[in-house]
Design a protein that fits this description.
- The chain is an alpha+beta fold.
- 40% of the residues lie in helices and 25% in strands.
- A 3-stranded mixed beta sheet has the order 1-2-3.
- It has a single domain, classed as Fe-S cluster assembly (FSCA) (GMP Synthetase, Chain A, domain 3).
- The protein contains 3 helices and 3 strands, in the order ααββαβ.
């Protein structure tokens, strides 16, 4: 069976091509024991004014749908529009 981290990475891999097309990416910074994933947006995603929408509508949704043990997804460096 896959670890939680492997399943989170697999969920992010479904979104990464779109991020990379715009010059960005995402890294898993931490997964806490109580089910909180912390992500770091990198490249263009770290400074994009649309990053909040990308995070909520893409990254968070993909993780929560694929890994039910995850309770919350946070980002270290969201840029607010």
């Amino acid at each position: 069976m896959s670890t939680i981290r492997e399943r989170v990475e697999a969920a992010l891999d479904t979104v990464r091509p779109y991020l990379e097309a715009d010059g960005g990416n995402v890294n898993v910074s931490d997964i806490s024991e109580d089910g909180v994933v912390t992500l770091e947006l990198t490249g263009a995603c770290g400074s994009c004014p649309m990053s909040t929408m990308t995070f909520k509508g893409g990254l968070e949704e993909a993780i929560l749908k694929a890994v039910p043990e995850i309770k919350k997804v946070e980002a270290l460096n969201l840029t607010t529009a």
